[in-house]
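Protein modeling request. Please complete all fields; requests missing the sequence field cannot be processed.
Requester role: graduate student
Desired output: 3D structure, token encoding
Chains: 1
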Amino acid sequence: MNRYKNMKDIITPQFIEIMSVLIPKVFIATICGFIIGYDRELKQKVAGIRTNILICVGCAILTYIAFYLSKQNPVVDPTRIIGQIITGIGFLGAGVIMKNEDKIIGVTTAAFIWVISSIGILIGAIESFSIPIILTFGLLIISRIFEKIESYIKNNKK
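Delivered output (158 residues):
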């Protein structure tokens, strides 16, 4: 039998409260994941736009849920859920690291996965949206700078 007889049964004050906070967080996480994913996509890396968006959005949602549940029940420790997110992301990152002949590839991609997940966690945990966006652009800028430095070192090494 159907529990919900009409929309009033679905759209409760709790639903409105959760969605009014979660929708902007998902939007910002999508933007941050897109920014990093687009850069990785341009470089033809395995973790591109969709992967980075999903990682960032997933981490933001899980972190928000952790803090929401801790407000409802003081016994719930949101840092335990965050710890599990980090563990899961570690496995995801490890999956992109491979040995190719005499080189290890995918370490930078794994690092980007780890960092974009931390930005997602930040989005889920705090109310400010400017900090994650600034950090995302900062990550992109730092990555580009050090990419040029690495290229310079490799070219002058020969």
